[in-house]
Amino acid sequence: MLKKICLLLTFTCFIFSCNNDDDDIVPVCETATNVSSNSVTSNSATIIWETTNSSLSYTIEYGILGFTLGNGTNISTSSTTLELTGLQANTTYDIYIQTICGSDNISLYSDVYSFTTLVPNVIPEFKTNLSELNLFSGALNELNITSKGFEYNLSTTLFSDYAHKQRIIALPEGTSMAYDGDGLPIFPDNTVIAKTFYYNIDERDVSLGRHIIETRILIKSNGTWETGDYKWNDAQTDAVLDLDGSSLPVTWIDTDGNSNSTTYKIPSNTDCFTCHGNNENIIPIGPKLRSMNFEINGVNQLEQFITNSQLTGITNSASVRSLPNWEDDNESLENRARAYMDINCAHCHIPGGHCEDESTLNLAFETPLEDSDIVEQSFSIDYRVSFYLDGLSMPFIGTSMMHTEGVALIQSYLETLE
């Protein structure tokens, strides 16, 4: 009998003990689910998630794609919505969320959620620093063009003391250049045109790097163009708006292994108006349709613009004349020389140009020879290009040396006119 009583008491104690353990069991802290984002901009995003717990708080850890947990940025919140700010543009981020149900009751991390910030719009304003215009992505000195802009090239280029140039057009979202004949297209307001000048340290091995000198900017605002120039710092990390102009020594090694040096002249805003002014208005010089109508790597540049909806009002490039490449030996000597004078001289020597009152020359490529006054002024042309003297030789500004190859071309052409 006593043995039965003992067994009954033991069983009763076991039952009560189990009931007390059930009271102490803590519900599992569930992991956040359905993580998503909205209102994503170039530097911010709103993160949203769901949970089944009546949680007191959440810990969000985030970082650039592939970061290791524990090394990210942590934020605590009691809401299931969180705005992240101060993010890098055009960058993919990973997000992890932990639910905090109590000091000793924390959920597992959520599955990783990733989102990418937007590419910032190009800013059509003359800010203090070039980086503020958003023309490039990543490290500025890599000159990686933003996806909001595109590169353009010219069949015949302006001589600038053998400097290399990168050319960019950035159109406002949803707009295009409009066809307006062989010359300049119609650019919408808030278009930004940029041209960056640089020298490769050694032309035989471009992997050795380059020295970026300046970035010239044209911005169209309320129907008129404005100019500005950004001078790159010695560290090559940014460029600062400088409207006064300056000079600096540059050196480089050419493809033949020869060391070259010059005192490079960064133009002042007054100099910019001298070349870009026409009838008291500033206009672009280079991006005429006839100067961009040629093949690059087997693809016609204008056709590519049309395909990309960057150029409208024309269905193909066939109706646009082409400015010859002055270095193309397959072209006639006249075409090469006239193309060279068009890009290097005609912005001043055309009706409305800076030299209109000083010269009768009209050096636009499409001007017939008999109307250009080239024959009548051949002696003067030959003399003014045959040496370099600041303020007297031609071009009047924009160079610090004579272009040997260009001068030889012009003189060879002038000899045929005698």
Automatic annotation (TrEMBL):
A Pfam family reported for this protein in Swiss-Prot or TrEMBL: fn3
Domain of life assignment: Bacteria
Residue ranges of every copy of the Fibronectin type-III domain listed in the record: 31-120
PROSITE patterns, per the entry: FN3, PROKAR_LIPOPROTEIN
Record protein name field: Fibronectin type-III domain-containing protein
Organism for this UniProt entry: Winogradskyella thalassocola
Lineage, opening ranks: Bacteria, Pseudomonadati, Bacteroidota, Flavobacteriia, Flavobacteriales
